[in-house]
Amino acid sequence: MVINGVPYHIDIRGEGTPVLLLHGFTGDGSTWDHLLPYLNNYKSIAVDLLGHGKTDSPEDPQRYRIEQAVEDLSVLLEELDITEVYLLGYSMGGRLALAFASAYPEKVKALILESSSPGLKTEDERKLRAEGDEKLADMILSQGLNEFVDYWEGIPLFSSQKRLPAAEQEAIRQNRLSQNPIGLANSLRGMGTGSQPSYWKELSNLPMGMLYIVGELDRKFCRIAVEMKESARNASVIKVPGAGHALHVEEPEKFGTIVRKFLKNT
C-alpha cells in the first residue's frame, strides 16, 4: 500500500474489531507473531514502520518525523475504511501510538503501551538525546549493521533477552540484521526520542482507557509507567515479574494473556 508517496508493508489477519500493532526500533511487523494467537477474535494489522521491514526507506530524515508517521497511520486507516482501532505499540512504536492517540483520539478505542514513554520533558534532555541518536545513526552508516547490532544487543536495556533460548536470540539478531541501514539511521534522526515532541501534557486529555505494560526488570520504564498513570485520566499499569524491556518476546504467554484480557474488558 502506498501512503503519502511511500510504499508500506502491512500484514492483516483475522476478522473482528481491528487492533493496530506498532513494533519497536530495529523490528518489523513480524515481531508480533507470538501475539497473534491471542488476537484470534480480532483483525490484527501489523505495520512495518517507515525504514523497517519491507516498508520503504526514504533518504530524507525529515520524512520520518513522528508527526508525519502519525499522518501515515491516519491515511492507512482511511484506506482500510476503519474508523476506530485498538492501538498497541512497543517502545518506539509506543511513542508513535501515543502521538497518534493525541492527534486522533476519536480513532483510538483503547491504547496499550509496552515499555514506552511520552518522550522527554525538557529541551535540554531532547537535545542531549538527539546528539546521542545522531552518533548511533552515524555508527550504522559508517560501521555497518553487524557492528551496530553487536552494540545494540549489548546495551543494558536488552540484557534480560540473554536468557532466551539461543535459537530465539539468533532469530531476533537476524531480524535486526535484515533491516535497511538508511532506514534505521533515519528513524533515529527523524523519529528518535530526542527528535519527537513531548506528549506528557497530552496524557491528561486523552479520553480512552490506557494500559501500560512493563517488565519489572526494566526499572527505568517501570518508573515512567507509574508517572504516566498518575498523569492520565483512565490508565492502569501491569508489571510482569522476571521480564525486561521486550515483554512480548520474553514472556509471550503472559503478555498475550494480559492484552487479550484488556481488550475483552474494554
UniProtKB/TrEMBL annotation:
Q: Span of the secretion signal?
A: none
**Top EC class per UniProt?**
lyase
GO terms for biological process, alphabetical: menaquinone biosynthetic process
Entry coiled-coil feature ranges: none
Family (UniProt): Belongs to the AB hydrolase superfamily. MenH family.
Reaction(s) catalysed (UniProt annotation): 5-enolpyruvoyl-6-hydroxy-2-succinyl-cyclohex-3-ene-1-carboxylate = (1R,6R)-6-hydroxy-2-succinyl-cyclohexa-2,4-diene-1-carboxylate + pyruvate
Enumerate the Gene3D superfamilies for this protein.
alpha/beta hydrolase
Q: Which GO terms describe its molecular function?
A: 2-succinyl-6-hydroxy-2,4-cyclohexadiene-1-carboxylate synthase activity
Q: Which gene encodes it?
A: menH
Please name the InterPro entries in this protein's record.
AB_hydrolase_1, AB_hydrolase_fold, Epox_hydrolase-like, SHCHC_synthase_MenH
Record bears the keyword Ligase: no
Q: Which UniProt keywords apply?
A: Lyase, Menaquinone biosynthesis
Report the residue ranges that make up the AB hydrolase-1 domain in this protein: 18-252
Q: What does this protein do?
A: Catalyzes a proton abstraction reaction that results in 2,5-elimination of pyruvate from 2-succinyl-5-enolpyruvyl-6-hydroxy-3-cyclohexene-1-carboxylate (SEPHCHC) and the formation of 2-succinyl-6-hydroxy-2,4-cyclohexadiene-1-carboxylate (SHCHC).
| Top-level taxon of origin | Bacteria
The EC number(s) this enzyme carries: 4.2.99.20
How the protein assembles, per its UniProt entry? Monomer.
Q: What is this protein called?
A: Putative 2-succinyl-6-hydroxy-2,4-cyclohexadiene-1-carboxylate synthase
Q: Which pathway does this polypeptide act in?
A: Quinol/quinone metabolism; menaquinone biosynthesis; Quinol/quinone metabolism; 1,4-dihydroxy-2-naphthoate biosynthesis; 1,4-dihydroxy-2-naphthoate from chorismate: step 3/7
List the lineage, top down: Bacteria, Bacillati, Bacillota, Bacilli, Bacillales
User: What NCBIfam families does UniProt report for this protein, alphabetically?
Assistant: menH_SHCHC
